Amino acid sequence: AHVAAFIKPFGVSFPVLIDRQGDVAAQWGVFAFPSSFLVDAQGRVRYSVNASIDWNTPQVKAIINQMIKEQTSVGVKELKPSPPAK
Known about the structure:
Layout: H1 2-7, H2 23-28, E1 36-39, E2 45-49, H3 58-74
Antiparallel strand pairs: 1-2
């Protein structure tokens, strides 16, 4: 209930994981909160950050735009992303 109330004002339209036991955090190498991952259509982590992030920076926008360009040129299939390579 707390998470839903927190994200509601942001209009989040994607799933938000609640990892009560910390299993997923350990698999993905999360050591700070918030942590964010951009995962491409092939399930590869293309960008990750273990901190607060400004999504409007030129670097992040360039990565997102490149991912969108790739997605529209090859089509998209739903995949469950794997944890990032260590």
